[in-house]
TrEMBL record:
Keyword Signal: yes
Gene3D superfamilies noted in UniProt: 1.10.530.10
Designated name of the protein: Transglycosylase SLT domain-containing protein
Alphabetical UniProt keywords: Signal
Taxonomic superkingdom: Bacteria
Signal peptide location: 1-41
Amino acid sequence: MSAVAQPRRTRNSRLVRALTAAGTGAAVLALPLIGAADASAAPSTTTAASTPATTPAGYPNNLDGWIRESLAIMAEKHIPGTYNGIHRNIIRESSGNPKAINLWDSNAAKGIPSKGLLQVIDPTFNAYHVAGTSFDIYDPVANITAACNYAAARYGSIDNVFGAY
């Protein structure tokens, strides 16, 4: 083939190839990180479109609303705790993910993984369940209220918990 018929390579094509390879590499590196964020969460059965804007009690269906609804129930049942104490512990335990599940600690090794916003194990949830809340450990309000009931019995209040409990 003569030199005239051969496609001419420019420096730009080498740069484009390098940038494409770098972009692909970054995407490949990011995929495990994106997946890792959800690896500890149980699969969600609801979509954003089907998630109601409020809870049945009329609170916003988000972390703020779940905490506020739990505090209202706790006040009725004389369970101590504050918004800040609950919020601080939720962020440390689950980052606000109501479907969080710990599959690696000593509880998980025993077959009873910690679950939900405040990472409660099933026996603790059952023992400290608060009447009037769901029996679903992944229900945000039930999880918060049971965990606060447990923390009140063990530490005086969820406000006194500053680490794994």
